[in-house]
Specification:
heterodimer; A: 173 residues; 10 helices; 0% strand; globular; B: 133 residues; alpha+beta; seven-stranded mixed β-sheet; 4 helices; 7 strands; 30% strand
């Protein structure tokens, strides 16, 4: 019987084939990128593909391609533009295969649908400062869940990084 | 670990893991595509499956089956399964290709439903956890 731990061991063992491990690294990027782009567009911003296309000045069909893991030809320049549009950070780095496997088997909701900067402010993950450029998430699909999380902070279930009065004022604004 | 649905392979009456036998014969790049998608599917909630282009909830004569879709060298590969037999489980049943909205083999739906019944009737012996090696 294969346990969840054995699953990770099996994936590590499968990496002995050079062609396979190279392909797996590429496919993990392709699959997670496609899901992240769709989630960030739909869940975080409530954008249709045409909305995002208009925002970036490109065709809707291109967005559709980006959300298909079989596409796999995203440029780093494109990804930087998408990150800016979604107000999230982009991390591109070389990494050992052990870290790749760990990433593959730990696809949390936050990993697949990362919160934007303004969502992180509301969640209290990032501190609100006088110089913060706060963008009210009017297009956020998850506005309700953010408020639920903010409630948890106010109730003390989640420790805030900032003064809870500030969050209250932000929510009421 | 963020497993939402554990993935299983169909095993035939002789104890042969049919999915593993097929999987082992795939060229590395195609195998990597399926591996990446199966691992991801394991960690996605059921309502999210249909939102992705590479997962298709089938209808018509294949109603109740779900296809994991991969394009490789202009061939559309399909791996059919269903969410079951128990909660938070997904069992891989049959593989094929798709061309002009037709599956090859044509009887893939019939094969998948027969295997699904076999798994449902004997979940202990007719499926094993998916093998990623």
């Amino acid at each position: 019987m294969t346990t969840d731990d054995e699953r990770e061991k099996q994936i590590r063992a499968s990496l002995s084939n050079k062609e396979y491990r190279d392909a797996l690294a590429v496919e993990h990027v392709n699959t997670t990128l496609a899901i992240q782009i769709r989630n960030l567009r739909e869940n975080n911003n409530k954008w249709r593909q045409s909305d995002l296309a208009k925002h970036l000045g490109i065709h809707q069909e291109t967005i559709s391609q980006w959300e298909n893991p079989d596409y796999g030809r995203h440029s780093i320049t494109t990804l930087k533009k998408l990150a800016a549009a979604f107000d999230v950070a982009l991390l591109v780095k070389f990494t050992p295969f052990s870290e790749l496997v760990a990433d593959m088997v730990n696809l949390s909701a936050t990993r697949l649908s990362p919160p934007s900067y303004s969502d992180e402010l509301l969640l209290g993950v990032l501190p609100i400062s006088a110089t913060s450029t706060y963008v009210k998430p009017t297009k956020s699909a998850d506005a309700n869940s953010i408020l639920v999380e903010a409630d948890k902070i106010l109730q003390g279930t989640i420790p805030p990084f900032i003064d809870t009065t500030t969050i209250k004022e932000t929510i009421n604004a | 670990m963020n497993i939402v649905s554990r993935v299983y392979d169909y095993v035939d009456i002789t104890g042969t893991n049919i999915i593993k036998s097929w999987y082992d014969e795939l060229e590395p790049k195609l195998k990597a595509k399926f591996t990446s998608r199966i691992i991801t599917l394991e960690q996605m909630s059921r309502p999210d499956w249909a939102k992705n282009k590479w997962i298709e909830v089938l209808t018509g004569d294949k109603d109740g089956l779900i296809a994991i879709k991969v394009e490789h060298q202009r061939i559309q590969y399909r791996l059919l399964g269903y969410d079951g037999p128990f909660r938070r489980e997904f069992t891989l049943l049959a593989n094929g290709t798709e061309h002009n909205n037709k599956y090859i083999p044509l009887e893939i739906g019939t094969i998948a439903f027969r295997r699904k019944n076999e798994v449902n009737n004997n979940p202990i012996n007719r499926r094993v956890r998916h093998d990623y090696r």
